[in-house]
Amino acid sequence: MNTAQSHVERRITLEGEGVQRVLERVNRELVGLAPVKARIGQIAALLMVDRARRELGLTTEPPTLHMSFTGNPGTGKTTMALRLAEILHELGYVRSSHVIAVTRDDLVGQYIGHTAPKTKEVIKRAMGGVLFIDEAYYLYRPENERDYGQESIEILLQAMENDRDDLVVIVAGYQDRMDRFFQSNPGLHSRIAHHIEFPDYSAEELLTVGDLLLEEQGYHFTEAGRQAFADYLERRMQQPHFSNARSVRNALDRFRLRQAMRLVEQGGSLGAEELAAIDAREVLASSVFGKASGR
């Protein structure tokens, strides 16, 4: 029996129940991001097929899994890295689902001989899982001749090539800055197989994010409170330093603080509904409406 006949006769079922559970969790945790979710689903499908090909003895090369996540703050990049690590672990491409999240300060030293051990220690901790480098472009500072970021990049490049069977590196940051970063580092660009852009949330999506976050904490908007929050979002999204879901989370924390203060000052007996409801009063006290109580 020749090899071709053997391949025809042997069949295999693509097992992806664990991966499907992770993808369903992604859909629950992250509102919107349809193109990102579709791309992650495609990568998962590719890896399932690659695993099946290996099990049947077909020709295959280990896929390059290093990635770039680009987008504004609060668009779900870190959360997606966490879920992606679970998918890679489920399919056997990394030994563990752990994610080591770092920035420049964790990798680059302040004096000669300091950067190499710092970078190597981070890589050692991440080995067998995923290394997530946020705002990766800060590693490269050509305007400073005494900067040691390039040394860290070179060590990372070596690990990405030599240890790609045991380490997945995800670099993340703003789109335009990451583009310039890759132009300045062709070696890094060539090792990144998947470039995934995370779009900003719409106002409607952020309103849903707010509902879900409050629900997780055992709170909810009143009807008037939700309408006030919709108005808040329309105004806040036009202001500087808006960070999508991160700004929503911060706003909800302030609403809860104001609600607590209002209830304490109000005094008297309280029921579950009063303790759980975020009213328009909490939202309208925000600075976007001309108040002085914060954004």
UniProtKB/TrEMBL annotation:
InterPro entries: AAA+_ATPase, AAA_lid_6, ATPase_AAA_core, CbxX/CfqX_mono, CbxX/CfxQ, CbxX/CfxQ_RuBisCO_ESX, P-loop_NTPase. Pfam families: AAA, AAA_lid_6. It comes from the Bacteria. Residues 63-202 form the AAA+ ATPase domain. Gene3D superfamilies: 1.10.8.60, P-loop containing nucleotide triphosphate hydrolases. GO terms for molecular function: ATP binding; ATP hydrolysis activity. NCBIfam families: cbbX_cfxQ. Belongs to the CbxX/CfxQ family. This is CbbX protein.
